[in-house]
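Here is one chain, start to finish.
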Amino acid sequence: MTESKKQNNIFTYETLVHAISGAAGSVVAMATLFPLDTVRSRLQLEEGRQSKNTLAIIYELVSKEGPCTLYRGIIPVLQSLCASNFVYFYTFHGLKRLRSSKNQTAKNDLLVASVAGIINVFATTPLWVVNTRLKMKGIPNKEKQNGAISESKSTEAYDNLIDGLIYIWKTEGISKLWAGTIASLLLVINPAIQFMTYESIKRKMNASYSSQADVPAWVFFSIGAIAKTVAAVLTYPIQLVQSKLRHGHNYTNLSSDAGTLQILLYIFRKQGFRGLYKGMEAKLLQTVLTAALMFVAYEKISKFVFKILLHRPHIR
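Its structure:
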């Protein structure tokens, strides 16, 4: 295959539509279920917070801090998610076309999704570092000072992604913008498993219908939920560590520059297996519902756009 043909396989209207649809779908889903993401972040990052059920924590946050706290940091989250999913969907579908869309297998999907995830990590990690800090801005935090534990608040001098990127770069160094990259690279397996599972089940479901247009929305919702559940359960402890690396952990007996493995072992020694899954209920509820809704929106948006562009020879 010539270089020009390879490029044509990647840079097509179809790949662009998949990317835009994936980005739009993720924004719709996250905007709808954002309070669940807030609960997940608070459980993962606040060491003193008791691990209650999701509804109890939502009630507690609203009563003590007001309803607006459930939506703290929503704008940068949506901006980061939009950029991240655009990169991921574009790379994933572009690489699938490069490898030929015929005879796709779960093994091929896993490989392509892993490569797309690695590219996405290096491209968008700085957005998520700022994002995590903005979400926890103003939240009481425990710090160790002169051997004693004191309570302070995160008071970063920025309120949006661009200012946050510049501030961290200037005050902490450019390397801090990629804090948690190792954990993120390990977590590439999460979306890889998710997309492999989703695409595998989707191929089987499509075979049961006369055309893909006949597949009802609840089928895509169910497939997306199953795929995300499998991926989330398998990788949750690393996601927990990733959040702590991005925000900064508060463990008094652990170095501030501790890595992924050190934090994992520390949590396991101090809190046991349960500590590695703290906030799991909120995470599952949030990510499974968000992923399921995202896939429904993605499928519907892409089909709608493909119908409009059907007259173009690139779209098949």
